[in-house]
């Protein structure tokens, strides 16, 4: 009897009457299972994979080609990469590789500016160390001269700590300016464009007061707890606390301060990039960095610490031969003027060589962390991809690409995983 759909008796439900039935269901059918006679029972199943191995997933035309994903598995297309990074949320390797590519893509501007900043920061320290080594050599040769021994402490303090303090002041100014200029160069390099030193400075010059304001506010925020610790130790001294209590309190205070300093510096690490690329003010940049780091604090902290370690190792390896040679020359030169000058030059060259590589590397990592956080929290990679497609169509990177980083000019994309800035005003206040 028919099932009402024109199927013949014995045909599986849903199988059309004019369609051959499955393997072995009809004698002489071309669909009869291979290796079995018409009408005979089905043969043994084909041998499976060896014991302990998963069966190989095959499509209707045999196994997939070597190196291809299994049938039915969707393979995501590679992300666009017009410049130093792929336009998608970045991994650790992407950030470190992008920082290196920034230096290699525009070495004249990046290394030239970094060398100037590094030399300005290294010269005061080099002079101080050369004077200190010369004083030490004179002292070793004239231990019997009481007058020279009496003048040694004052000269050592001025030569060592005076040069270091002056170097810190110069470094603060130089590195702050360098960070702003390199961040602007990085903003263009993401699209594959280059920027001259003059153009980068012209675009960054108006942000210099904001950058120094960020440095001052951040420094005050990091050092503020020191006043509390001073008051705490003064109270312990007034109460006549014993040495064990002072040591325990000191260790707890030190651990607390380290944790606080890491927390504050990580939360505010992206403020310079926001100030330069988004043209925000001091308070707005700090708030912007705080919000961007939300939801990714530990990852951001880990990458920043790893960057500091890598930069320290690279800087030490590059500067060590020059520093060693200068130190030996200063100790063996007998305190002569020529030996002190040669010592200062060698130490300054070593510090400059090390810092001219580590300064742009650290600035690039901070800038790429900023870009990564915007991609993860605002889907900013979609904005970058749209702009990159248009630039590829035009065949060049226009200067208007710099405006894409400013949310007041380019609205953010849809938020990913609950953006921390969701609901916050995007326009400058």
UniProtKB/TrEMBL annotation:
Coiled coil: none annotated. Residues 41-52 have a biased composition (Pro residues). Residues 93-364 form the DUF7847 domain. InterPro entries: DUF7847 (IPR057169). It comes from the Bacteria. The chain crosses the membrane at residues 110-132, 165-187, 208-235, 241-263, 297-321, 341-365. The keyword Protein biosynthesis does not apply. Keywords: Membrane, Transmembrane, Transmembrane helix. Residues 1-84, 405-429 are annotated as: Disordered. PANTHER family: EXPRESSED PROTEIN-RELATED (PTHR33133:SF1), OS08G0107100 PROTEIN-RELATED (PTHR33133). This is DUF7847 domain-containing protein.
